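Severity: low
Component: inverse-folding endpoint
Summary: output formatting inconsistent between runs
Steps to reproduce: submit the following structure tokens with default settings.
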């Protein structure tokens, strides 16, 4: 798990769960690989780590990645960070998570919106700003009624990743039970969505990688322009030293 993913998980817990929360939290993709969200969860919660392999931080090993061994409407919160991009059919994982959540239960996902190809054991997806809304549409076609509380993309910080964050509530009727939003607690984000509004906040057409590349190209072009001027001056100086002086020197003025 990269550092910004851990920070994003901390932001979710601080925003949606109190320090004394005793709710049941299930983490999908819980194996501790350079950190785990368990480390930043409130110590009072009942935390269950779920993964597809045995490892540190894993309490339950799945035999079927699209079937959770929990009763329907038995879990308060599901969190998943840097995991769903490795799920071949993440939309099935999403609806299975909704199944086990209580009606007012929350699901938090942190997934890459960019970044290198990293197989674990496969690497299938990147998530753009409309991904959260698309998941809601998919779930409603399956007879569920979730709502997207918020989503946004975080800027790169200390690493190359731009993360897509989204928070869902299982039943749209329970939106008002969760009035706080992460997006209000941070100063920098891109392409944010908030329940109750059709607006995209802090809109950017191009992702940060492309913007940085364009800036680098512009700087390089400017440098090449200056280099051309310098080369022209040096050429005229060279002509001057070869005895073509006065005319060439006048051109330098």
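Observed output (run 2 of 3):
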């Amino acid at each position: 798990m990269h550092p910004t993913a851990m920070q994003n998980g901390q932001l979710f817990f601080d925003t949606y769960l109190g320090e004394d929360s005793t709710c049941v939290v299930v983490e999908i993709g819980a194996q501790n690989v350079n950190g785990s969200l368990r480390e930043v969860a409130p110590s009072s919660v009942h935390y269950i780590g779920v993964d597809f392999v045995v490892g540190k931080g894993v309490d339950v090993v799945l035999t079927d990645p699209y079937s959770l061994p929990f009763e329907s409407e038995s879990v308060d919160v599901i969190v998943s960070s840097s995991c769903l991009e490795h799920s071949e059919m993440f939309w099935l994982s999403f609806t299975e998570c909704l199944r086990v959540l209580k009606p007012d239960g929350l699901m938090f996902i942190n997934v890459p919106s960019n970044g290198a190809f990293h197989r674990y054991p496969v690497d299938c997806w990147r998530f753009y700003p409309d991904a959260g809304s698309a998941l809601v549409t998919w779930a409603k076609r399956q007879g569920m009624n979730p709502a997207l509380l918020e989503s946004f993309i975080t800027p790169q910080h200390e690493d190359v990743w731009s993360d897509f964050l989204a928070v869902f509530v299982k039943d749209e009727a329970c939106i008002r039970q969760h009035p706080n939003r992460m997006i209000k607690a941070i100063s920098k984000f891109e392409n944010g969505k908030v329940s109750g509004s059709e607006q995209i906040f802090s809109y950017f057409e191009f992702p940060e990688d492309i913007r940085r590349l364009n800036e680098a190209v512009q700087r390089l072009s400017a440098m090449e322009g200056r280099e051309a001027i310098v080369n022209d001056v040096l050429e005229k100086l060279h002509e001057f030293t070869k005895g073509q002086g006065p005319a060439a020197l006048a051109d330098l003025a």
